[in-house]
Design goal:
The chain is of the alpha+beta class. The protein folds into 4 domains: 2-78 and 399-429, no CATH class; 98-253 and 347-388, Transposase Inhibitor Protein From Tn5, Chain A, domain 1 (Alpha-Beta Complex); 258-344; 440-507, no CATH class. It has helices spanning 2-7, 9-15, 20-35, 40-49, 53-57, 66-78, 80-95, 164-174, 193-201, 256-284, 293-306, 308-311, 335-344, 360-372, 374-387, 398-423, 431-438, 466-475, 491-496, and strands at 101-110, 135-143, 148-155, 183-185, 205-209, 218-219, 225-228, 234-241, 249-254, 314-320, 326-333, 347-352, 442-449, 454-461, 484-490, 503-507. The strands form 3 sheets. Strands 1, 2, 3, 4, 5, 6, 7, 8, 9 and 12 form a 10-stranded mixed sheet that branches. Helix 2 (9-15) runs antiparallel to helix 3 (20-35), helix 3 crosses helix 16 (398-423) and helix 10 (256-284) runs antiparallel to helix 11. The chain starts with a helix and ends with a strand.
Amino acid sequence: MQALQELCIDNFLRSRGWDEENIQLAMCHIVSRAVYPASELKTASFIMENSSICELTGYPVKQISKDKLYDISKLLYREKGNLETYLSEKTNELFDLEDKIILYDLTNTYFEGAKRTSKLARFGRSKEKRNDCPLMVLALVVNVEGFIKYSAVYKGNTADCKTLGDMIDNLRTVTSVSEKRAIVVIDAGIATAENLEILRQKGYDYVCVSRSNLKKYTEATSAPVSIKDNKGRVIELREVVVENCDSEYYLKVDSPQKVLKESSMNNLFVQRFEEELTKIAACIHKKGGVKSYGKVCERIGRLKAKYRSANKMFFIEIEKDSQDKCRSIKWGLIPQAVIENREEQGVYFLKTSLKKGCDSNSQEALIWTVYNCIRNIESSIRTLKTDLDLRPVYHQKDEACEAHLHLGLLAYWLVNTVRHKLKKHNIKSGWIEIVRIMNTQKIVTTCVENDKNQIIRIRKCSEPKEKAKLIYDALGYKYSPFLRKKSVVNKNDFLKNGCVDMLDFSSG
């Protein structure tokens, strides 16, 4: 709640003409989404039974319902453009950010249900391997600190590389002059030649991974630069020169640790590929097995498509008889292909429009550091989808689905505000762990009856534990919204309100 007040979202909504009751309900819903991400039905129960958020915002707890939460989510979504721009500027002011590096990536979330009438839900390539479900694509532009600059929702079958042009045009209209020459960091799926040309035309620099391993290049005469990643593993960087690519700077990245990983994966794929070939070959000699030459070729074709990296290293010979049936299948590894595959393991290439500096070593280290910022947007997406439960989507109407995603993004602003401030004090816990620590603090309500037939109701915040105090101190927030509240009411009035337990404990 204190993070929400720090962002002044309530003041923004007032400036947009919202009444106080809707502002209070919106703040209840955003905070609840951050600490207890669930459906509107479960959120309503959480607010009424397990949380004191209504006491902090002033919204009457008895008026909470799932329908009101649905409606307020839709109202918040109608403010999406203005609210996103406001929060982008507000966080820049709060934390003195310049947005010199912009990160762009896409993710998708899947639906439960057929969604036949939806204009957004489409079948596509799911990043969660849920290709059996219709999808919706969420595109995000964030800065290095993880704060969202712009977001958009696309149909589920939208390819990653088809969205960058729209995002850059929209980003131009919402960013300040100082951000016009930002460095855009993207992954290989988005870094098509057309998209890179768009970035150049719009005046942005870029850093990305080359979509294919370079074959024809010459290594620079300067010695390679050795650096360590965040886990202390050595990585070798070397400038390479590519013919007819004077406008781009290429960097070869050689990681011994990546060699071990790719080698292990490659051996597993080769093993599985051979096992499947053995099964296909065995079927030829079994009663009722697939023997038709055409059908066997189809099976092998599907197998090659499944294991693209492994099939390049194999030769396969199929012998057939006069009746167009297979007699045998022979296969084996191609020595030259195996050698080439081994040489490519652990090696990839970065390319950028940044001009080469005077100090080659610092240039190579700079490009590596800039590209590794893309891990921040991966972390942001992971927080959204896992910690804030952005997947799956159960809503049926497109408007409700978009409002659901937008509410998750608003909750993410709170999460990232808290985590950004904590990281400055070397507290790097995940959001779920932070919520668990802070859940140790409660509000205790004690009710007793005096000799005048009156009920004395005392509410008191428990003392935060040491870990919670560390978080409060790092954030600069107060330990509790109040110390002690006392009220005296007649017993009949007290019972009329539905409070029959003499001792009532509720969390805060």
